[in-house]
Amino acid sequence: MNKLYIITLVLMLVISACIKEDHFGLSKYGNIKVIEISNQASLAVINSDSLTATIEIPPGVETTALEVKTLKLSSFAKSDINIGDVINLSNNVDINITAEDGTIYNWQIIPFIASENPPLPNGDFNIWYQTTEGYYEPGESAETTIWGTGNPGTQILGLTATTPFEIEDENYAAKMETLDNGSLAGAFGTPISAGSIFIGKFDKNAIDPSNPEAAIDFGSPFASRPKSLKFKYKYTPGPENKDKNGNILPEGDMLDIYALLEVRTDKARRLATIWFRNGEIQNELTEKLIEFTYGELPSDAPNYMKPTDGEYVPEDALDYILPTHITFVASSSYDGANFAGAIGSTLIIDDVELIYE
């Protein structure tokens, strides 16, 4: 997947990133933006109206001593609970947030026990929300969705490479298309934008023109062991697959769809892998079922499927350990992160579902 990283985009994103809640005077805001507890099963549901953060805990996890792994607050706000603190989530936990202007907000962390077989929320892509910039993103809101797209990067130049697609009345899918960024972008080595959808967050504050994926925090908290992944897709590759310099490549364009289960502690270790890279024309929405490969991939597996650092979960823990995160990515051009692809390549994906038996 890729974003349009040319000078215009960078400047506009940097400027927009400087606009904080506390733009005028001392900030009155005392919100929890992101919170993550060790072993939580899914993304925390944060409600700034009720001042609650609801956290899903997997069955069987000892709840009396869970570590705060991530805590992001409103600008300049402070908390009486911090990263690294150990909290007891056998019951609700109070957390006081003090805004820059001294206002104190009494939040509650509310735990509940997860299903043993959790689904992917909005995996059917029927729910989309409209952003302030006018384009649509999958989910009910930016705060609650597990899904992200490359649109926050491409929309600066009026491009939205990922859009809702109505299959039939009120039944939507996600449509990804590889778009022409124009001659100016091409001169900067960013000729195309591949449509993409992923589990994770796009952070405009982390933008790095030299690393298109630096602004993306891939994955969401997850703690279960699905057997396989099922989805529906249709695909048409564009006519000319080119690299970022405009050279026609000998192979045609291909879609990329993959899912990873990871254990993230001191570092990320791969627990299970699914990868589907294919360039065949698929004119009809077709169901695909792929089993997760748990543990180390075979030596003859393509390098792109393997962890970049070679780290897998230790074999002696393979049969029982739970993942901490799940990642899912789909793109209309497999090498879009390097600004290579065929203009017009189109991927439609729907009904992404985890299968447990």
Written overview of the protein:
With 357 residues, the chain is mostly beta strands. The protein has 2 domains: 32-113, Immunoglobulin-like; 118-355, Sandwich (Jelly Rolls), CATH 2.60.120. The chain is 6% helix and 41% strand. The strands form 7 sheets. Strands 11, 16, 17, 18, 21, 22, 24 and 25 form an 8-stranded antiparallel beta sheet that branches. Mean pLDDT is 89; it is low at 1-22.
Give the class-level CATH name of the largest domain. Answer: Mainly Beta
Termini gap: 31 Å
| Average pLDDT score | 89
Written as H for each helix and E for each strand, in order along the chain, the element string is HEEEEEEEEEEEHEEEHEEEEEEEEEEEEE
Helical coverage, percent range: under 10%
Secondary structure: number of strands: 27
Q: What is the CATH topology of the largest domain?
A: Jelly Rolls
Beta-sheet strand percentage? Answer: 35-45%
Q: Pick out the low-confidence regions.
A: 1-22
| Number of H/I helices | 3
Notable traits:
single chain; 357 residues; mainly beta; Immunoglobulin-like; Jelly Rolls; 2 domains; eight-stranded antiparallel β-sheet; five-stranded mixed β-sheet; 27 strands; 41% strand; globular; disordered N terminus
Quick take:
By secondary structure, the protein is mostly beta strands. 6% of the residues lie in helices and 41% in strands.
List the helices and strands and how they pair.
Elements: H1 7-17, E1 32-37, E2 45-47, E3 52-57, E4 66-73, E5 78-79, E6 86-87, E7 93-98, E8 104-113, E9 128-130, E10 136-138, E11 147-149, H2 151-154, E12 162-168, E13 171-177, E14 179-180, H3 183-187, E15 192-193, E16 196-202, E17 216-218, E18 220-221, E19 228-236, E20 241-242, E21 255-264, E22 268-278, E23 282-291, E24 293-294, E25 325-331, E26 341-342, E27 346-355
Parallel strand pairs: 3-8
Antiparallel strand pairs: 1-4, 2-3, 4-6, 5-7, 7-8, 9-10, 11-16, 12-13, 13-27, 14-15, 16-17, 16-25, 18-25, 19-23, 19-27, 20-26, 21-22, 21-25, 22-24
